């Protein structure tokens, strides 16, 4: 049985949401004429998404064959829709509380506080 392998990363570019979109489009393009299983291997790193990654029936396989998404050998990919909070500063030394600025568009609270050692 023929297995098609699609690597979901751009050479020299590392993991990106664009790489996931391109891998998804590649699967959809060959889905109807599948003659073997497809394995999409994700390179290690964090794939930061700005919108949901939606997978449907056209992403799942056809003609009795499957599409499998997995980490590349010895890699740890993370698909994240989260936003990074940076610029942490000590807000309250007595209670060990730190404060960081949230990115724009985060919501109503521009500042996030956390107590370390919880």
* Beta strand count: 8
Radius of gyration, taken over Cα atoms and rounded to an integer in Å: 20 Å
Q: Biggest β-sheet: count, sense, barrel?
A: 3 strands, parallel
**Distance linking N and C termini:** 52 Å
Q: Per the principal axes of the C-alpha atoms, what is the gross shape?
A: elongated
Please work out how many helical segments DSSP would assign. Answer: 1
Helix amount: 10-25%
Low-confidence regions: none
What string gives the helices and strands in order?
EHEEEEEEE
State mean pLDDT (0 to 100 scale): 78
Tell me the β content. Answer: 25-35%
Overview in brief:
This protein has 118 residues and is mainly beta.
Keywords for this entry:
118 residues, mainly beta, 2 domains, three-stranded parallel beta sheet, three-stranded antiparallel beta sheet, 1 helix, 13% helix, elongated
């Amino acid at each position: 049985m023929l297995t098609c392998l699609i690597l979901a990363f751009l050479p020299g570019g590392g993991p990106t949401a664009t790489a996931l979109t391109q891998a998804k489009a590649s699967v959809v393009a060959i889905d109807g004429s599948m003659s073997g299983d497809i394995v999409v291997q994700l390179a290690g790193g964090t794939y930061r998404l700005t919108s949901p990654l939606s997978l449907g029936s056209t992403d799942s396989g056809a003609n009795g064959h499957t599409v499998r998404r997995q980490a590349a050998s010895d890699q740890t990919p993370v698909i994240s829709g989260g936003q990074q909070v940076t610029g942490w500063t000590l807000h309250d030394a007595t209670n060990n509380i730190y404060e960081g600025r949230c990115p724009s568009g985060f919501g109503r609270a521009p500042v996030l506080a956390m107590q370390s050692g919880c």
